[in-house]
């Protein structure tokens, strides 16, 4: 099955209320292993790649490996750049055909983070890609309560390209 957009993986997951695994890979062997495991359990999958791995292998080579491997598997799969603070790296990946990126501006103020995330969303739209972002501050491994996070911000905006309805200090947004 050819690679699909993040939206094509998340939309059915939101509708049917199931989770989709996202796994970081480091080379062709781990990419093949994750895709094969997804086929075995008949599950869509998000292949995530770190900035370090992109720098080592190159955005175009990773996308070509992914496209070829995904084409020969029977499950929906998407290629995602994980936790990238560099807009130029995101642009490089989108230009190479990647499906989505997590723009990580957690070291910036919320206002700067939101402003730059809007720029990344515009870039993603130009390439038909998705963006996950607007993450600020430290994320603890403890449960997040609705007092510290605007409830359902993620699900409300997951299929939207607007950032207007989300004013949470800790939010995740996917736009395509």
Mean pLDDT over the residues: 82
Total count of strands: 6
Radius of gyration: 16 Å
Number of helices: 7
Strand coverage percent: 15-25%
CATH topology: TIM Barrel
The low-pLDDT segments are 139-176
CATH architecture name: Alpha-Beta Barrel
Query: What is the level 1 CATH name?
Result: Alpha Beta
The CATH superfamily turns out to be Aldolase class I
Main structural class: alpha/beta
The strands making up the biggest β-sheet line up spatially as 1-2-3-4-5-6
Gross geometry: globular
SSE run: HEHEHHEHEHEHE
Tag the structure with descriptive keywords:
176 residues; alpha/beta; TIM Barrel; six-stranded mixed sheet; 7 helices; globular
Descriptive notes:
The structure is a single chain. This protein is α/β, with parallel strands linked by helices and 176 residues long. The protein has a single domain, classed as Aldolase class I (TIM Barrel, Alpha-Beta Barrel), CATH 3.20.20.70. Helices cover 43% and strands 16% of the residues. It is built from seven helices and six strands; from the N terminus they run αβαβααβαβαβαβ. The chain has helices at residues 6-16, 28-40, 51-57, 59-71, 87-95, 110-127, 153-157; strands at residues 21-25, 45-49, 77-84, 100-103, 130-133, 173-175. A six-stranded mixed beta sheet has the order 1-2-3-4-5-6. Strand 4, helix 6 (110-127) and strand 5 (130-133) form a beta-alpha-beta unit. Helix 2 (28-40) runs parallel beside helix 4 and helix 5 (87-95) packs parallel to helix 6 (110-127). The longest helix has 18 residues, at 110-127. The radius of gyration is 16 Å and the shape is globular. The protein starts with 5 loop residues before the first helix and ends with a strand. Mean pLDDT is 82; it is low at 139-176.
